[in-house]
Specification:
The protein starts with 7 loop residues before the first helix and ends in a 17-residue tail after the last helix. It has helices at residues 8-29, 46-65, 69-98, 101-111, 113-122. The protein is built from five helices and no strands. By secondary structure, it is mainly alpha-helical. Helix content is 67%, strand content 0%.
Length: 139
């Protein structure tokens, strides 16, 4: 490409080169990653799914009839049932923080074995043993 832009074609060429360089730099430094859809919520269970479905059915039915008492009662029961496993899960999490370091690590690793295996595989590096005479400055 020439240093001077003398006409419209030179301007378009320069803009195209700039755009290509920008996109290339972005793609090399910010690789595309697909975020995993974590739908495995530890406190969600089949009972909550059934209660939620019932609440949604009642809501749709009450929109037509105008009588909201059954929906409100069912929604309150659902919300109470929802809070219990959430609180229980939070308490378990807080117990992990109070546990000794080895027990805490074991609990964290045992929560989702597949996830931890993936993390460990991604971070696996060849570890070197250094003797006392080696220093980081020499490496």
């Amino acid at each position: 490409m020439t240093d001077k832009i003398t006409n419209f074609i030179d301007l378009e060429t320069a803009a195209k080169h700039f755009q290509d360089a920008t996109v290339l730099a972005y793609n090399e430094n910010c690789p595309f990653t697909v975020r995993p859809k974590n739908r495995n919520i530890s406190w969600w269970n089949q009972d909550l799914a059934e209660r939620r479905a019932k609440v949604r059915r009642l809501c749709n039915a009450e929109k037509k009839s105008g009588n909201w008492t059954d929906y409100k009662r069912t929604l309150t029961d659902y919300n109470k049932a929802l809070r219990q496993p959430k609180r229980k899960s939070w308490r378990r999490h807080c117990e992990i923080e109070k546990a000794p370091e080895c027990a805490r690590l074991q609990r964290i690793l045992s929560k989702d074995e597949q996830k931890m295996e993936n993390i460990l595989q991604q971070r696996r590096r060849p570890w070197k043993s250094y003797s006392g005479s080696d220093s980081l400055a020499q490496k």
